[in-house]
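question for whoever is on the cluster today: can someone run the full assembly for these? two chains, 468 residues total. i dont have access anymore since they changed the login thing
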Amino acid sequence: MERTEEHTRRRSIDRLSDLPDAILCHILSFLPTQKSISTSVLARRWRYLWAYVPTLDFRHENQEIIERVMILHKVQTISTFRLFHYSDCSNYRLETWITFAIARNVQKLQLLFHLTKSALPRCLFTCKTLVDLRLNYFGIIPMSCPVCLPRLKILHLICVQYEADEALPRLLASCPVLEELEIESCMDSFSSKISSPTIKRLTLSFPAPDRSNNCYTLEINTPALVYLRLVAGVHDHIKSGALTSLIEADIHFYKVHKQRGFDRFRYVPEFINRLCSVKFLKLNLAYYKKNCFSHLYFQFMFSIM
Amino acid sequence: MAAETGTPTTLTLKSNDDELFSVAESAAILSVTIRNMVEDGCAGGVIPLDNVDGKTLASVITYMNGISAIPADEEKKKSYRDKFLSDKDFETLADMVLAANYLNMSCLMDAVSAKIAQVMEKKSVGWVRRKFGIENDYTPEEEAAVKEEHKWTFEGVETDDDN
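^ ran it for u. tokens below:
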């Protein structure tokens, strides 16, 4: 019995080594590029396989290595280009890398920088192939350049800057098929509008434990929304239009210490009343004082019924 | 397709070791290979799947039934896939990727490929050669040259030279 099992195991492994290159490349596409290139040492067949993997996924490699890999990479259509880079680099270099990805019809672009506060290349905002764009901790959403992202479905803007308050609405208006939007703001103040007839999933996070005087102002108009996650201070001003398609909501309101005057927080029950169609609601008012909390909790129960 | 009759249609699938399985057509057509056979009218009797053994096919059918029962919610589907693959050993994953490729099931193919990649990520060259059945056909000099060329890629990887 054991021998039969061992035989079966052996057979599946032998068949695995017979897999066509396209499937091996598909498996390699789920690895960071460093690991994918290291498979070139396995055997002659694997030597250049990495160069045909449709994903480039850099995790803090130095600039010389990134550029060497780009030159040796043979794929004309890149499905995913991911670049996590901790050290600073020039605007010129950054533009070269992003332009490289766009010239290869990139579909999913994810950029994470920690030190660079630089403008994004203009060609990024007119990329016809982009389906999924995630910017983390860098980049300025522009006002002055043309924007047209006809295929973009997923957009994550984590701690990016905005050239003006109108930059975000202008960007969203140029994404006709957007379905998922995630925004986390790390700016001192933020005042904007989120308006889209197509967005189904929306995550908004305004965490800022240190801010007690400034507040964020946001108007939401997303009638097709199905899922909403919101983390905001009770002193922020967040207004929403009708949310009749909403099924799931995960809402966290926090209170910054030493704030007084409940009349400043009137928008909170108003906002919660907008959630009347939800089937699954998580409501976290953990930092509320007890007397305020009970009032809001009643509103929430009433809405659900 | 018999969908017009209003009753769920069941298909019979046969593995390459002659095991028979019944599965709802609505779940089975997650496989583009099977869907094409159904659309071409070849699914009247038993559908032979010459490249999949009974043990793997049973597992694939469990997946087909599980995933097709989840409504259009990508998050829930993803967590089902993660759970489904969590207890599978490397040999089973190898069989699954071959089956998913043969059956043309892109969602299963992606999930299993990602899982194989996740297992490979921290492993040594020797481990990957053994598990993939790869024969090292480099001369020692060639292998040293390739290693030297991509020296930076071997930083932080476990070394085992029992290959």
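summary bc i know u wont read the tokens: Chain B touches chain A through 37 residues (CB under 8 Å). The longest helix of chain B spans residues 106-121.
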